[in-house]
């Protein structure tokens, strides 16, 4: 039976819009904070109850709302921020759609208390599920605005069910607050939850705010970046490759003050780090791009987290170059022959500038665990192997051992403090970080081995696991792919699977969890990235554990063998964590150190 067409009532329209704008308490926090910032606030207090599900109250000291306009603030498509399409094209405020407060009001109990500097007292309006409860009435309070949102989704129970636990929702709220606070260090923030203070960030500069929010790890790894080109300015901090993370959860990018997730920006960041970060490691970044508002469209997404650049290619290139330069100047893009600046080394006359060079730190993972007996013998066998076979190979490849001039990394002369190898090549002196170099060599070799085929471990007793009917049917659909990945999975019943083989490399991983992840990923994207990532991570750990520790004495033959291995290994110039594995000091560099020829 066909129903007649009818225009929807206003409240329903707002409730539908709320579906996009108000996804969860964190989205309310975001919209309300953006309004506070647009109002020119200098201090904002955020009070949450039960992760924001019960109550979100945000107080600012901004310009307030005139009481004659207060009823408009909660009306759909009413805004003080734009007046025309032209304004939209060059919008400078965070808001402009005029629908946030109306959407929030339609799915909660909202009260706004506000006072402008012209008012003798504050004014208040109350809206319940979109229905204005009373006329605007006198109230009390300081200049500024307090938006109080209670019982989110009280009138839309279906949506309320989608809310997660209070702690999960609180986590999302804090993420949103951090993103916004990072972009505005000039605004002070205080965050309360269930009556207790969680955070207080005072006014300050960007360094102070970044340190307050991202903590010590980023503080120690951050490289400042500033780059300007025509209408584009990029400012912020990026992490040394050493401080990479497994997830991209510490990447904050802004376009004209707005936190955004943008493919162009993300891709530029990834590409710039590609040479110095292996596999799926992710850098930490806080980067603000300022661009002529006419060159970017911010009206792409109701939550305004996406933008569209008029010249995406140019923006990509600009960000890519800026990051590469910043990384280059810091890592000292090791130049094989000339650029090792002797000014950065002590010259024996006490004119040390060493402390100003970046201090490389060991990666945060538990890298330097003591070696097991097993690993020790595997190192020894590695060296005896290369002593016998690889050295022969190296000689035929590079000529005889005396032929120093032809070997890129030269010949080992000595070992210093059990950490560095000192070698001589035709340009001068080569210094090698023994552990880092060996680790890289092993990692690349393990990756090569992996590429030639997955080794499979037959399980004596198959692992029987419960699975949903959906998962069981996915396992059947992807049976063949799973097998090529080393998982032989059989269906026992509509809700039971048996894992009969697993990839040998992942035998210490948790096979059930891995399989479930793999199934959902295969189904969603058809990709096996989870497995690749897990395997590469295993390989990296294996390489690290098997690589020679510091303080192990090597013979000259062993050292030479390692140098030859490095020469033959792709990407051997940097260790798995992005640190250099070797540096060159040319004769000229050495001369400069001793002020020779001046
Ligand atoms: P938008 O921000 O897109 O304009 P909103 O629904 O978020 O739409 O807000 C509607 C209007 O209410 C804003 O244009 C602004 O004039 C006013 N407003 C909202 N919050 C505040 C605040 N904290 N301080 C001053 N004015 C506010
Ligand atoms: Mg707004």
Key attributes of the depicted protein:
single chain, 598 residues, alpha+beta, Heat Shock Protein 90, Ribosomal Protein S5, domain 2, formyl-coa transferase, domain 3, nine-stranded mixed beta sheet, five-stranded mixed beta sheet, globular, binds adenosine-5'-diphosphate, binds magnesium ion
Can you give a write-up of this model?
There is one protein chain. The chain is α+β, with helices and mostly antiparallel strands. The chain is about 35% helix and about 20% strand. Strands 1, 2, 3, 4, 5, 6, 7, 8 and 9 form a nine-stranded mixed sheet that branches. A hairpin with a 2-residue loop joins β8 and β9 (about 195-200). It binds adenosine-5'-diphosphate (ADP) and magnesium ion. Magnesium ion binds next to α2. Adenosine-5'-diphosphate binds next to α2 and α5.
Compute the separation of the termini in Å.
98 Å
Average residue-wise pLDDT: 81
Total tally of structural domains: 3
Shape descriptor: globular
Q: Runs with pLDDT <50, length 5+?
A: 330-403
Within CATH, the superfamily of the largest domain carries the name: MutL, C-terminal domain, dimerisation subdomain
The top level CATH class name of the largest domain: Alpha Beta
Sketch the major β-sheet: 9 strands, mixed
CATH architecture of the largest domain, please?
A: 2-Layer Sandwich
Q: Report the helical percentage.
A: 25-40%
The CATH topology of the largest domain turns out to be formyl-coa transferase, domain 3
Small molecules bound in the structure, each named once: adenosine-5'-diphosphate, magnesium ion
Count of individual helical segments = 18
